[in-house]
UniProtKB/TrEMBL annotation:
One of the GO biological process terms: carboxylic acid biosynthetic process
Sorted UniProt keywords: Pyridoxal phosphate
Keyword Lipid biosynthesis among record annotations: no
Keyword rRNA processing appears in the UniProt entry: no
Lineage of the species this protein comes from: Bacteria, Pseudomonadati, Pseudomonadota, Betaproteobacteria, Nitrosomonadales
Cofactor(s) listed: pyridoxal 5'-phosphate
GO function term, MF aspect, one: catalytic activity
UniProt name for this protein: D-alanine transaminase
Similarity comment: family membership: Belongs to the class-IV pyridoxal-phosphate-dependent aminotransferase family.
Length: 286
């Protein structure tokens, strides 16, 4: 069961016109929201990020937060699985092919649900490998735009190398992963790149920093050099669908002792406890 432009229907019956600007230009934005025990995780924060993306491409939000919440609740209820992830997709709508914004055109709004399996225990225990590449994406990576060809090509580099992720570097600095945010541990301090136009402001990124603050894990948000990345004691990736994973090999070289480190272990434990607490309706970090 999906939602498309005011209708709930099976995904096999969903179609959009070929002149939709999302298809023609990639003119739209998206959002991904994890669902645990049939409850959306940090829904308000995800909708705030969606609004930021819509503002970034000068597209009016088609729904209020209350209406989004109603649509999302309906989709969750009519799809299988206690744990799901929701994909929200909004384009500038259908119009003749012209780069200029069309006037008076309703946006295309699409929502679908996909089962969300937990991170495999084997990967949590062993960590995952990653590679690096130069970040050649556009200059507004803070917008969650549907035109993801650079990310697709960069992530495929990781697949070709039989690794989990491609970590991106721009002007000698760490930005993020092709489909994740990246943290490192250097000199026993958890480090995160600052939120700016070079990276997507991750919701899980925020949770990790909140947990570090709550549990007195030394941490800082600042620019991270390539040299610091390559000499890090620990490297971690975070995303709404992968949660937190330790990266234990980078470009074929071991990270630390090539095993998930103590900071990752602490954060993953606290994250799982926080997630369970949130799903019980108790927002306090614990």
């Amino acid at each position: 069961m999906i939602y498309l432009n005011g209708k709930f229907l099976p995904i096999e019956q969903a179609y959009i016109p070929v002149l939709d600007r999302g298809f023609i230009f990639g003119d739209g934005v998206y959002e991904v929201i994890p669902v645990y025990s049939r409850k959306p995780f940090r829904l308000s924060e995800h909708l705030i990020r969606l609004q930021h993306s819509l503002d970034g491409i000068r597209l009016d939000n088609p729904h209020s937060e209350a209406h989004w919440s109603q649509l999302i609740a309906h989709i969750i209820a009519h799809n299988e699985g206690e744990d799901q992830y929701l994909y929200l997709h909004i384009t500038r709508g259908v119009a003749k092919r012209d780069h200029a914004f069309p006037l008076g055109v309703p946006p295309t709004v699409f929502i679908m649900s996909t089962p969300l399996p937990p991170p495999p225990q084997a990967l949590l225990a062993s960590g995952v490998p990653a590679i690096t590449a130069q970040d050649n994406r556009w200059g507004r990576c803070d917008i969650k735009a549907i035109s993801l060809l650079p990310n697709v090509l960069l992530r495929q580099l990781a697949i070709d190398a039989r690794t989990m992720e491609t970590i991106l570097l721009r002007d000698g600095l760490l930005t993020e992963g092709a489909a994740s945010n990246i943290f490192i541990v250097k000199d026993e301090v958890l480090l995160a790149p600052p939120k700016d136009h070079r990276m997507l402001p991750g919701i899980t990124y925020d949770v990790v920093l909140e947990l570090a603050e709550t549990h007195a894990i030394p941490h800082a948000v600042r620019e991270i050099s390539e040299a610091e990345l390559r000499s890090a004691q620990e490297i971690m990736l975070t995303s709404s669908t992968k949660e937190i994973l330790a990266i234990t090999r980078l470009d074929g070289e071991p990270v630390g002792n090539a095993k998930p480190g103590p900071v990752f272990q602490q954060l993953n434990q606290h994250y799982q406890a926080y997630k369970a607490t949130m799903m019980r309706g108790q927002p306090a970090l614990s």
